[in-house]
C-alpha cells in the first residue's frame, strides 16, 4: 500500500463518517455505543434546571471535527501525493494542516452558527400557574373556553376552565390558578385584585 492509497482510504473513511453523522442528525438514528448529546441530560424536555447547551463543555475533539479532520487530511494528502512532486514530509505536514483547518471549520460552524443562540432552558419560565392572560373564547358555566397569554416572548393559547365553575365572558383578564392535563383553570383578574384590597 502506498501513501497515496493511505490518504485515499483516510479520505473515504472520513467522508463516510461525515455522511453518517449528517444523516444521523437529520433522521435521528443512533449507532450502538455512540450517543450524541442534546444539550445536557434531559435536553428533549428537561429533568433539571440546566438543560441547555453549554458551549464551554463542547470538546474540540468531537466526532464531527475528527471526521472532518480525517476527510481533509486524506483529501489534501491524496492530491499532494498523486498530482504534485512535493516531498513526503512536506505533503504529510500540509495534510495535517489541511485536516486541522477542516476540523476547525466544522468546530467553528458548530459553535458560532448552530449553537450560538442556544441557552439553558429553565422550567420555571414555562410554569403556567400565575400566568396572566385574556380569554379569547368565553367560558360557559361548567364549560371550557380558551385563554391567550404571552410566555417567553411568544403568544400562546390553551384551553381554560373557570376555577369555581362559573361563566366568564370573552376578553376578560384572567390569571391561571392551576394547570392540569393541558387545561388552565383560571380566575378573573378583578376578583383577585378585589380580594387583595379587602384584606
Describe the structure.
It is a single chain. The chain is of the alpha+beta class and 199 residues long. The chain is 42% helix and 19% strand. The protein is built from four helices and five strands, in the order αααβββββα. The chain has a five-stranded mixed β-barrel with strand order 1-2-3-5-4. Strand 4 and strand 5 form a beta hairpin. About 9% of the residues have low confidence.
Poorly predicted segments: 35-52
Order of helices and strands: HHHEEEEEH
Q: Over the alpha carbons, how many angstroms does the gyration radius reach?
A: 28 Å
Q: Proportion of β residues? A: 15-25%
Major sheet size, sense and barrel closure: 5 strands, mixed, barrel
3D shape: rod-shaped
Number of helices: 4
Helix percentage range: 40-55%
The strand line-up of the biggest sheet is 1-2-3-5-4
How many strands? 5
Averaging pLDDT over every residue, what do you get?
Answer: 83
Distance from N terminus to C terminus (CA atoms, Å) equals 89 Å
Structural class: alpha+beta
Quick overview:
The protein has 199 residues and is of the alpha+beta class. It is rod-shaped.
Question: What key attributes describe this structure?
Answer:
5-stranded mixed β-barrel; 199 residues; single chain; alpha+beta; rod-shaped; 5 strands
Amino acid at each position: 500500500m502506498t501513501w497515496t492509497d493511505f490518504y485515499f482510504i483516510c479520505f473515504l473513511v472520513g467522508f463516510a463518517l461525515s455522511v453518517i453523522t449528517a444523516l444521523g442528525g437529520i433522521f435521528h438514528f443512533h449507532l450502538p455505543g455512540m450517543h450524541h448529546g442534546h444539550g445536557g441530560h434531559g435536553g428533549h424536555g428537561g429533568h433539571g434546571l440546566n438543560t441547555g447547551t453549554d458551549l464551554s463543555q463542547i470538546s474540540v475533539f468531537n466526532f464531527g471535527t475528527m471526521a472532518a479532520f480525517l476527510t481533509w487530511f486524506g483529501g489534501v494528502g491524496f492530491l499532494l501525493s498523486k498530482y504534485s512532486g512535493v516531498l513526503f514530509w512536506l505533503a504529510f505536514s500540509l495534510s495535517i494542516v489541511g485536516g486541522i483547518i477542516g476540523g476547525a471549520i466544522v468546530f467553528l460552524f458548530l459553535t458560532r452558527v448552530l449553537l450560538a443562540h442556544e441557552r439553558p432552558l429553565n422550567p420555571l419560565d414555562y410554569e403556567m400557574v400565575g400566568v396572566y392572560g385574556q380569554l379569547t373564547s368565553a367560558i360557559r358555566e361548567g364549560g371550557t373556553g380558551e385563554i391567550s397569554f404571552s410566555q417567553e416572548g411568544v403568544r400562546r393559547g390553551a384551553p381554560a376552565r373557570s376555577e369555581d365553575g362559573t361563566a366568564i365572558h370573552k376578553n376578560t383578564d384572567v390569571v391561571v390558578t392551576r394547570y392540569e392535563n393541558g387545561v388552565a383553570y383560571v380566575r378573573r383578574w378583578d376578583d383577585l385584585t378585589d380580594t387583595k384590597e379587602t384584606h
